Amino acid sequence: MAAELMDGKLLAQEMKEELKAQVEELKSKGITPGLGVILVGDNPASKSYVTSKEKACERIGIFSDDTRLPDTITEEELLSHVDRMNRDDKIHGILVQLPLPKHIDEDKIINAISPDKDVDGFHPVSVGRMVLGQETFLPCTPHGCLKLLERYDVETEGAEVVVIGRSNIVGKPVANLLMRKDKPGNSTVTVCHTRTKKEDLLTHTKKADIIIVASGFPNTLTADMVKDGVVVIDVGINRVEDASRERGYRLIGDADFDSLKEKCSKITPVPGGVGPMTITMLLFNTVQSARNRLS
Ligand code: GUN
Asked: Residue 117 gets which letter from DSSP?
């Protein structure tokens, strides 16, 4: 069986058309949605993510306040930028790109972002509300995974879901969202991670209806580990050397796409799966935050 591709690029495009219309409507009411973006240092991957986020904002009419800071910045100075954005009425969402340099306490910075502008959904108040099933900004990558499952008619109610990875950004929140009494949701969720025994990982993945791979390592999931017809969402983005490419590398996920596509019923490609959805959900949260000003 050849798998159906869950096309994140296409879904992102559809959603961005809708968001663009909402931005127009907000502008007609005197509100231009604004995103404050803080990038510290010059990590190439972070720079590339931040540039993609800013370009995406521009394309749908969101204004972005780009603040690039050297990695010698102190915690106090960084906190003062967050505070400035908290108080700026033109800014509806704040994104501090992670990771931050080692001398800066990431938790302290995230805690300083006003929960009303926490479009990344990383603040403890946002996380708490999410776990309790209350209205809040949902973290972008997990929310993007849910949108893909919904768009491609994947039944999550009663489904055996295995999440591989327990990060604060993906594993923990996506597991939480899928066990909520909601749609998509109502799944039976198992979380596997680096300390899960190999034989246990296999037991879980072999009976899973849906597998979300967010381990950060290529080939974490291979075809021999799954049953026929499984749905695979691959959150990984890994750079592997490839001299035949102009930039010297290509991107692969955490799952072995080539073997899995013969066994899955549906699978996300890398690139073009979860990646474009992450950015789109950031735009979604920023527009939502601006709309909250209307009420
Ligand atoms: N670093 C990796 N992913 C993310 C993300 O979604 N948001 C932020 N702020 N930093 C990240």
From this structure: G
